[in-house]
Design brief:
Number of strands: 2
Shape: globular
CATH superfamily of the largest domain: HPT domain
Strand content: under 5%
Structural class: mainly alpha
Largest sheet: 2 strands, antiparallel
């Protein structure tokens, strides 16, 4: 990730990605209805239903926001509503799930739409992570127990530097240096130490220029860090889930949209600890990367023009991409099965082989990334969550705390559900909804809290 100008649109089209034709057609109909000033709710509801069935949860949430605000889309707000509809429809046709989840442009529309609804519904607010992390489990993070005197000094330094940043004073740059130094001093070596996550997020906000520009999200992040520091001073050992979600989404955003470079390796490893993956750059600069990907996309599109489409329920996939995915899925599930059996091979059934659990996590992440690239949203979400569960098992083995690991049964059930989904995909049918196995696995992950103060030597990537 670099601080140079970012390409527009925010992500390139994905020529091998699946299409949800029903949703695209419904949104086109909604645009025509809006131009004719007739009701748009019917087409939007059809689009939301198709996107839910496809497992494109972030897109479904965006469509739900359009449905909610449609009755109020008149007079002065009508241009904003139409702009949101046009940009969302265009993004949907690019078939890039990471853009649909992490696009700042789409989130700006999403926030405007919900603010309009909020005028009539008290207490109705949204955040970037509501779109970016839709349907994803959040691993618990800890606050280390520290001496009260040390925390008092750090908090005084932090609050003194925070004020110029929030007010946008000329001294903001130096104040940002001090805030980042305080956060880095608080960070521990445990993979789930929340200040480690906060430090990586702060670095990302500096690199992409949002912190120096006085971006509201950056100000909000630094203000929430101050509240987090207060929680730690009061002896709280688990970080608020809302903070973890917000920091993860901010850290993931640019890496998800534009890919990672070699200097982002630590941030990518941290994202993997929390169940998120990114693509890697294949070129030296962002400009050459964009040119390379554009050329590859054009070549792929040309090669795929005459390829037969495979219909998997609401999702229409390119048959060549579909066959490639099946090969990846078969290899990943085989590796997942072997590594999972090895991880739980101990005679007492409770001791986990950490190295085998890491291998299982990587296999699940490979499958999740392949499913996301193809457009199989339900498969991608469950595979990523399973990768996170195995990552947590490996972590629990390293720190010697069984309580930090998700329940074995929930992992096995998720693996069985994922296998059944892939068998349906291989047979040419739509995978079933992942809601039930994903909810059970999410519950197991979020209930398994790491041990506060535990600090393993390193995090295996």
């Amino acid at each position: 990730m670099t601080s140079v100008d970012l390409p527009s649109p925010e992500a390139l089209p994905n020529p091998r990605g699946a299409a949800v034709h029903e949703a695209e057609a419904a949104l086109a109909e909604a645009r025509q209805a809006s131009d004719a000033q007739v009701t748009v709710v019917g087409p939007l509801l059809r689009a939301a239903q198709a996107l839910r069935q496809a497992g494109w949860l972030a897109s479904q949430r965006f469509t739900d926001a359009l449905v909610l605000v449609a009755p109020f889309a008149n007079d002065d707000f009508l241009p904003q509503f139409r702009a949101a509809l046009v940009d969302f429809h265009a993004a949907l046709t690019r078939r890039n799930l990471r853009e649909l989840a992490c696009s700042p442009t789409l989130f700006a529309h999403y926030r405007e739409l919900n603010a309009q609804v909020g005028r009539y519904t008290r207490g109705y607010t949204v955040a970037f992570e509501d779109l970016a992390l839709a349907g994803r489990p959040i691993a618990p993070a800890t606050l280390r127990a520290s001496a009260a005197s040390k925390l008092a000094v750090l908090r005084a330094r932090y609050e003194q530097a925070l004020l110029p940043v929030l007010k946008g004073h000329e001294q903001a740059s130096a104040a940002l240096d001090e805030l980042d130094a305080c956060i880095a001093e608080l960070a521990g070596t445990d993979p789930y130490d929340v200040w480690r996550l906060a430090s990586a997020c702060a670095r990302a906000l500096r690199v992409n220029g949002r912190a120096q520009a006085g971006d509201p999200e950056a100000k909000r992040f630094y203000a929430r860090c101050n509240l987090l520091l207060a929680d730690q001073a009061h002896g709280q050992l688990l970080a608020p889930r809302s903070f973890v979600r917000a920091a993860l989404a901010l850290l993931w955003r640019d890496l998800a949209l534009y890919g990672a470079a070699a200097e982002d390796a630590d941030a990518v490893a941290l994202l993997n600890d929390y169940g998120l993956t990114v693509d890697w750059h294949v070129a030296a600069t962002q400009a050459s990367e964009a040119a390379w990907e554009q050329g590859a996309s054009q070549a792929e599109a040309a090669a795929s023009q005459d390829a037969v489409a495979r219909e998997l329920g609401p999702v229409s996939v390119n048959v060549l991409a579909y066959e490639d995915f099946l090969q990846t899925a078969d290899a990943s599930m085989a590796a997942l099965a072997v590594s999972g059996d090895a991880a739980f091979a101990a005679a007492d059934g409770t001791t986990v082989d950490g190295a085998a659990a890491e291998h299982a996590a990587r296999a699940a992440y490979r499958l999740g990334a392949a499913a996301q690239a193809l457009g199989l949203g339900h498969v991608a979400l469950l595979a990523d969550a399973l990768g996170l569960a195995w990552r947590r098992q490996a972590y629990a083995a390293r720190v010697g705390s069984a309580g930090a690991a998700p329940a074995r049964r929930s992992i096995e059930q998720a693996g069985e559900a994922l296998r059944a989904m892939l068998l349906r995909v291989a047979a040419g049918f739509a995978p079933p909804d992942s809601a039930v196995p994903l909810a059970l696995l999410t519950q197991a992950i979020e209930r398994a809290a790491p041990v506060a103060g535990t600090a393993p030597a390193s995090s295996v990537s």
